[in-house]
Amino acid sequence: MAEQGKTLDMAPAKREAYWRKTSRLMWIIMALWVFFSFIIPAFAVQLNSIVIFGFPLGFYMAAQGSLISYVVLCFWNASAQNRIDQEFGVAED
Amino acid sequence: MATQSKRFVDNLGKIYGGYAGGFIGFVILLAILEQMGVSNRIIGYCFVFLTIGVYAYIGILSRTSELSEYYVAGRVVPPFFNGMATGADWMSAASFISMAGGLYLAGYGGLGYVLGWTGGYVLVGVLLAPYLRKFGQFTVPDFLGVRYEGNTARVCGVIVLFCASFTYIVAQTFGIGIITSRFLDIPFEVAIFVGLLGILVCSMLGGMRAVTWTQVAQYIILIIAYLTPVVWLSFKLYGNPIPQLAYGSVLQQISQFEGALGILKPHAAAYVDAKGAFSWVEFNNFWALVLTLMIGTASLPHILMRYFTTPNVRDARTSVGWSIFFIFLLYFTAPAYAAFAKLEVYSNVIGQPIASLPAWVQNWSQVGGLLTIKDANSDGILQLGEFIINQDIIVLSMPEIAGLPYVISGLVAAGGLAAALSTADGLLLAIANALSHDIYYKMIDPKATTVRRLVVARVLLVAVALVAAAVAGTRPAGIIQMVAWAFSLAAAGLFAPLVLGIWWKRTTGAGAIAGMIVGFGVCAFYLVGTRYFDMPLWFGIRNISSALFGLPLAFLVTWVVSLMTAPPSREMQDFVDSIRVPRGELAWVKGAVHE
Lengths: 93, 595
Prior knowledge:
The complex is a heterodimer. Chain A has one domain (16-87). Chain A has helices at 12-42, 44-47, 57-87, and strands at residues 51-52, 55-56. Chain A contains 3 helices and 2 strands; from the N terminus they run ααββα. A two-stranded antiparallel ribbon of chain A has the order 1-2. In chain B, helix 2 (12-35) runs antiparallel to helix 19 and helix 5 crosses helix 15. By secondary structure, chain B is an all-alpha fold. Chain B has a two-stranded antiparallel ribbon. The model of chain B has no long low-confidence stretch (mean pLDDT 90). Chains A and B meet through helix 1, strand 1, strand 2 and helix 3 of A and helix 7, helix 12, helix 13, helix 15 and helix 24 of B.
């Protein structure tokens, strides 16, 4: 792992702050993941009475809407975590 | 070697762009040949042998004698291309050929697969991939062995990995045999071994490096093959080249037909039983399946190890984004396939005189087992109940439904073959690497030289492939069922120790091992009991979602046993800290053997 330089010396307080922020991001994304994977499908019957461009909404969400949210969540996680890394000076070179 | 590899990586866009263009040119050339009267059989041969030839060429070019190239592709794979490779690694013959048909038959219920096989990447990207990349070793059991300080955890990991991946690879080999035999017109048993050669040429000489670059090539073929027929059909019938949008109006037409035909279970209706009434059993099984497939995604080693190959932690995260994007392209198209096929059947097949059915129905009803027409009441008109369709046929027959020439059917076969080969390669490598690296090198002969380790790795690779082909050749019953088992077994056995190992420093070796044994054990007990011993279902949960019981138990047992045992050492906690931060070296625990 020569490319990464020597062991990082990070003050414990700073390390904890970094991990707190990382964990918070994790919980936010997990909550959204639960929302799109379980909460929305749970109301599929009710949502199906709304029809947009021919798609019953409950069907649409499980066939496309939630999938789009997953793509967005993954890229958002990558960029938000990068910002946290930079803020704490632990991003890779 | 290193500079050559760097030049290759810098030019990936050009290389694969040229490759995709060349492939499209090849399809056009075959289309012209078909118009000139070249037979379908020759066209089928061209597709199968040319594509396998290309994969073999890439495989041979990527041969290597370096360990890190063999195990993790030298860690130079850019996120975008790793995303494509993961897409091919992920999407199997089942996704490519059977999923659209499953949606055709099950309607909303089938969307559980669409959700379950995509949403897991959020878990991969947030909870696991960046940290496993920082860990920076060769295999998933490696992480368990180091984090839980010992070979017991490592062996448990290898056992779960083997059980999950082996059932999966048998199913893939089976799929390869089916496709090859259909398009080459040769016996199934012979076709399996032709396919086996196709798998081995991709992986044997170059390991992960070769598999990576062939998987990128395979992704390009499979996505072109999947999108072409349905885009064409959508454009032809609805003037809209984006089938994913066009099928909204199709869904409306389907529901009108459903009313007219007296179908009790509408296509888009959620959680209904066969009579169209809301059912809690369907509701519970839907979310149980979604959860199982998602957690399984995040636990299958052949997927996780793809993120060992990126240059750094940041790229591992981005790469998960590209992976889900490339997978999304296929998965959000599948429901459109199902809707178009259903409308075609309702409007042009059901209620028509049997003597004048569309050509695609007549053609496929002559191929054994896929499409059955039986005029039960002998009135010469096809009723709904007289028409039985196999789920594999929806994708395979779409080119004919769309009125496309045979060359597109060949293209679809090449796509299905690419999907099956790429997944089989990823699985094969995951199994063989665990055996050669975790069992042989880490436990049997830690002093083995590089040359010897690579020889052992390759011998095991060939051995596992041969055994998988032999098992697939016996046509084991319930093969599709077994694929679903892979997700449950991996989820119940591996998810808890991996996630807790990173996110909860207090997790101890004893806790993780107990959790793995209980989680995996309960899951396997439920699977086998309900499948073979007529055990009643618990809470009506079908055995495809068996992880639902093992998974929470794995977390619970890991938690309780960890709290009952002494906390991990200061050094181990520092090690976990160093995994959590992208920058800096790892703080290895004394005595931990690592590359």
